[in-house]
Amino acid sequence: MGIQDLQAFLENEGVGVDLFRIARTHPGGFRLVLDAEGCLDRLYGGYFSDWACGGQWARCVQFLTTLAQALADHQVSLCVCFNGAHPTPPALPQHWIQTQATHRQRVNSVLRHIVTKGTPPPKVWWVPPTGLHSCLRTALRYLNIPIMVSSDDHCQEVVGLCREKAYAGLVGCSGEYLVFQPPRYFSSSQLKLTYRSSLETKEYMVHELPKVLDVPQDRLCLFAALLGGVILSENGLTDFYKRLGINQKKQQVPPENLIKTIGQFVHDLPSSDIDAACIEVFGDLNDLRAAKLKQAVQYYFNGTKDGFLKYRTASGRRPKPNKKNQKPDQNLQSTSSDMDTSKLATESSEHEQKGLEDYKLATINASINADFSLEEHCHELSHGVAAMSLETADTHTKQVAKPTEKVDRPSKEGVPTISAHLQSEDNCPCAPAEVLRTCAERHTRGLMHPQMLSILTHRQITLPVLMEDDNHREIPSIHHFYRPIRQNVYAIVYNMHHHRFMAHKAKEEGTASTSLNERPCTVQVAEWIYSRVNPGKSHEIVPGVVLDWPVPTVQRLWFGTAQDDKCRRMRAFLSCMKSDTPLMLNTSYVPQHLLILATVLRFIMTSQIQILRRQELDAFLATAFSTDLMNALHLQEMTVNGISSRGVQLGALVMAGAEVALLANDACGAPVPWLVAAPWLYFDGKLLQRNLHRANHCKHLAQLCDNHLDTVVKVERMRKAILEGLEVEFAMPPLPLVGVVGEPLGGWRGRGRGARLEIAGVVVGQWGSGSYPPRAARYPQVSYVGYTPPPRNAYSGRGWRGVRGRGRGRGAIGTRGRGRRVRRDTDEPARPATIAVNGKTVRSDDMNLLADEGSPQEDNIDNDGEGAQQQKPKTGKIPKKNLGKGKKKSAKTDVAQSLEANGPLDKKDQSISEKEHIGQGDAPVSN
Fold it and tell me: For burial by CB atoms within 10 Å, which of 305, 309, 773, 927 has the most?
């Protein structure tokens, strides 16, 4: 229920249109505003089944390039708007929590589907891949398509831009736009670029909406407010809905009945007076909900054509910042007086040209195999960032300043409680005025990470739900994992180091009062993370953490033009990412376009939590250096044998790290050029899943790199730069299933009570019941501790044929001269191995009997290496006279004979074997 039901109600009322055909009737071109939040899947390239792998960024850029070319051919101009407004969860709890809860349900469904099926999820669970907004902003900037990012109220700013710049229409998918009634309104969810060179969608006749609803035009805003929305939620209208006969809890009322019922109530009101309507709805004008109803009505009126002139500011100037609790710093004013604060120092033509050259160098090899041009628009990028503005910087300033002048914003309800709590522990001054101004202008033009403005203005940040498991079994919470980087960012943008230094200096000189310097300067930011433990009910207070070296002020980082400032910008960024090492800046080891990926992988490796395995690290690097990375057509036709839940979460982990790296890059003055930070230069989700699957089976790194020796050298050098100076501890591979896999040991989890396997008195395997699906019964397989085969992985040249080997491989059991020798401390005679299954001792001689009893497919048992048939005893018990005498009816297998010959392995040897295995990067391949 809510205002979005109005959009659902009019879905069938839309008329199919072709925007290119409409553009032919406009001589000067057809100019539209596109709300990107309603068509993220369309801008991603339409629906593809591999979006859950982490992001098909080359395919996304290919589609946007085709769309931009088609728009230019048909003289259609688009201004794409993104939602960068801080939602302020205390004032908007219901809307934000419901959105995150929906995404969490979809993510859980996707991961569950991947675990059980191993195939891509269906379209109904589509969730934007991590980093999609940043990729779209970078790609649109690359294609010279205008961008606008909202800062306070998304829908109000989008419709305000449409009216102020006299756009011909608006493409969106929100019920609020229907009430605002733009010049023409098209559906963004139905937007589709066809092969027939047409851009198809639906058009809603918004000016006929009062006639369709049978509601007077002057009461349309009241009708929308009674549907429930952000200001006055449906929970506040529960009593009103019950009086109208609407059961809100059961949600059994279809949108048609809801719209018609409320429309009839508004139509039957005696007058259009808001006070009279409040009395009819709540029974008392003094009710707190009556004030919210008035605010909601005014909110919708501000978006209409009549209310727009009253809503926007007359002068367009930015209001003066709040000077409360802000002490003027003479040192900061003196340092920033000689700087050009109109733009970042890295936006110079020299820096832009350097980024363009690095981008061409990164894509020169990929363009040969790519099925779309990468350098088509490169010549236009040399004009700098000014070409990406909508028209002038003043118009963006108006868009940012306009919502702050509005009187009826409801966000003032919950903010004082948070700010008061933060101010009690936070004694750091506000950000400098020139930093706020520059951040606001770059934010509106889509040139800065949207979270930066929220940090500087609200000291709050909202972190969306990611493609991760809520239980965090193998991979920790991604947002909490990257929190140290954000803490460094908080300290940098609020000049914590500078304020502490000045306070210490003033204290030594005795010029400052003791009351102001009792505690060092500290900044605290409220982080809103939706999780199973805390589903958006409260925030987490996170303090800023200064770096271990004297970081310059944010003004010097952003606006300093000296050579030392350039070096300190890069050092500050690398320090945030725990990557301040010499090889990281050596382009022969880490190319410029792979610096973001390298810093993210190094931050993961510096963590105390072992997350990545060695073959997984090489899979990421092989993906970045792959010649197929930019070949979107080849990647789309490529099939992946099996998609794993771990691989999907690792892709989300790295892309989330890239997002945090972009935030740190902007906080440090953007030392990494925006063009070489594009995600399609180093990542592709589908290619990553293929490499992760192959890395577990490849014998060496060259096989993973398709036998391209130059790629192998690049991977080795970049891995060396990432692991420079670290005591590498890779994550342990999963333990292989040991013991008899079948009915005697309880089978898979969920089939019985579980089991425990003991060999020679040592517990080597234990598992219990679970919820995994049953598998078909197989012949018995036994893994003995008496012999530890060399692992078959990408980092060892050995192969192992297992217990069924015929004695010809280096790792075969029968070739004792070539296999691994077991060290013996004593010369005691060999003892037969015993196996305890669920507390019941089974001798090695009874293995044939156990295999016959445990496997229903006794005809499928392989023969031994000499080709002799295994004999099946006639009775359930083996006669004692046949034990150890070497007769033809002896039940000893080749494995048991080899085990007796080698002797048991003591605990000391077992630990040595495990240490040799750990760090190899892969588990022994089970038979």
Answer: 927
